[in-house]
Design a protein that fits this description.
The protein is an all-alpha fold. The chain has six helices and no strands. It has a single domain, classed as 434 Repressor (Amino-terminal Domain). The longest helix has 20 residues. The termini are far apart. Keywords: DNA-binding.
């Protein structure tokens, strides 16, 4: 399974770009991009969007990867992870239904 960092690094390497060039094009510090690629830091949603556009990657896939890593990191040492995710999904559906009913 590829991490978000792996995906970003592969995209850069496939285009044969150096970090400095990417940093200049997307206006994100070179050291930050390096940390994203090494999974030492997580980009913001805005940075994800910029990187997706620059690399020509599907924005939705990067966002799904970003959220899933965020959730997995939060729950990795928790008991009943499956039950937590099931209840969370039910709550999301409830909230969406409430918003649609307004």
């Amino acid at each position: 399974m590829k991490t978000l960092g792996d995906t970003l690094k592969c995209a850069r390497e496939e285009k044969e770009l150096i970090l400095r060039k990417v940093a200049a094009e997307v206006d994100i510090d070179q050291s930050l991009i390096s940390k994203f690629e090494k999974n030492e830091r997580k980009p913001t949603m805005e940075q994800i969007v910029r990187l997706a556009k620059f690399y020509g990657l599907p924005e939705s896939e990067l966002i799904i990867n970003w959220y899933s890593e965020k959730i997995a990191d939060e729950l990795k040492y928790t008991e009943s992870t499956s039950e937590i995710l099931k209840v969370a999904e039910e709550k999301i559906n409830y909230y969406k239904a409430q918003e649609n009913g307004k």
